[in-house]
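Standup notes
- DV: blocked on the single-chain target, sequence here:
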Amino acid sequence: MASRAPAATGRLLVGFRKWYYNMCGFNKIGLMRDDTIYEDSDVTEALRRLPESQYNARMFRIKRAMDLSMKQQILPKDQWTKYEEDVPYLAPYLDEVIRERKEKEEWMKK
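- DV (later): unblocked, structure below
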């Protein structure tokens, strides 16, 4: 019985994450999690480093979401962003920018 507890806890945690993801609502207007990040200087630099196709896809999603929001509508359920499809496309670039900024700050301290 004890060997089954971690698997059950893992399934419960994934189930809770999916529920919370759907309750946030950004997926109902076609956005991904990384589309909702507040744009500070680090995020702006990470966006500049995105490949053009990913940047264009992001801008399309944001513009469509703004249009839907102004119309007070949501997408049909089959067009919602699914939890499994939402990959952190900006995270690797953002991690690199933050690492470089911290490295530069350390260098400037010396």
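- Follow-up: The first helix runs from residue 5 to 24.
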